[in-house]
Design goal:
single chain; about 260 residues; alpha/beta; Rossmann fold; 2 domains; six-stranded parallel sheet; four-stranded parallel sheet; 11 helices; about 20% strand; binds D-glutamic acid
Length: about 260
């Protein structure tokens, strides 16, 4: 049996990670689950996130996935252990935080790094804690940006509304003097060019999708033809189907799977 990677997020954000994995491992079959019924995850309680993650993991295992990627920072922060426990010892589970922490720790010695993410991710202090353990010469500034994921999910990017919202978050005093900014939510690569425009090249923007895809792909060497992927949501929307098609540059079939009923 080939490699079948189960990937999940609250919505379209994890597609940034799925696409990056597909570019590196075209022969792996992806099974994507967007939990649109519970979006946004950023303001939900840790217990709710663990409950959703458990159900989604069980579903992805029932689809015979042989590896899992939690393509959501909020779920990675609250439910990594839960997902690993449900998956069992034979299924490798990847989160989107550890590869980014490793990347930052090896490149930004004695510098200040900013993190923007959902309120849920920022509250756990998972990035500052893990970066400190990996390299304590790095100063970490965190900023919760709760409007960004719902705004992006609604298709508001590259326009005047997104520009105003992004600017009002990024001009926060705590982000002064940073060398790099981590996009600590998998929705944010969709506004990467707007973030870059704000900093005018003076700050490195760290897009977790590529860093995570590299860490997932590291352990596999696959041969053969590209295979077709599967896409599921807990609540069907036309917008999600359209975004997925735009992302993957081809027609895809999006199925609703009511795993929470
Ligand atoms: N894309 C997710 C993350 O990385 C969740 C955003 C949300 O649903 O609030 O945190």
């Amino acid at each position: 049996m080939g490699l079948k990677i189960g990937i999940f997020d609250s919505g379209i954000g994890g597609l940034t990670v799925a696409k990056a994995i597909k570019n590196k491992l075209p022969q792996a079959e992806l099974v994507y689950f967007g939990d649109t019924a519970h979006l946004p995850y950023g303001d939900k309680s840790p217990a709710s996130i663990r409950h959703y993650s458990t159900k989604i993991t069980q579903f992805l295992l029932s689809e015979n996935c042989t590896a899992l990627v939690i393509a959501c920072n909020t779920a990675s922060a609250h439910a990594f252990k839960t997902v690993k426990d449900v998956a069992g010892p034979d299924i490798p589970v990847f989160n989107v935080i550890d590869p980014v922490v490793e990347f930052i720790a090896t490149r930004y010695q004695n510098q200040k790094v900013g993190i923007i993410a959902t309120r849920g991710t920022i509250k756990t202090r998972v990035y500052p804690r893990r970066i400190k353990i990996a390299n304590d010469s790095i100063t970490v500034a965190s900023k919760a940006t709760p409007l960004l994921a719902p705004m992006i999910e609604e298709g508001f990017f590259n326009n005047n509304i997104s520009k105003t919202v992004i600017e009002s978050y990024l001009k926060a005093r705590e982000l002064n003097g940073i060398s790099a900014l981590v996009l600590g939510c998998t929705h944010y690569p969709l506004i990467q060019s707007e973030v870059e425009a704000f900093f005018k090249g003076s700050v490195d923007i760290i897009d977790s999708a590529n860093v995570v895809a590299e860490s997932v792909a590291r352990g596999y060497s696959l041969k053969g033809k590209e295979v077709t992927d599967k896409f599921y949501v807990s609540d069907f929307t036309k917008g999600f189907e359209k975004s997925t098609q735009t992302f993957f540059g081809k027609k895809i079939e999006l199925k609703e799977e009511r795993i929470f009923d």
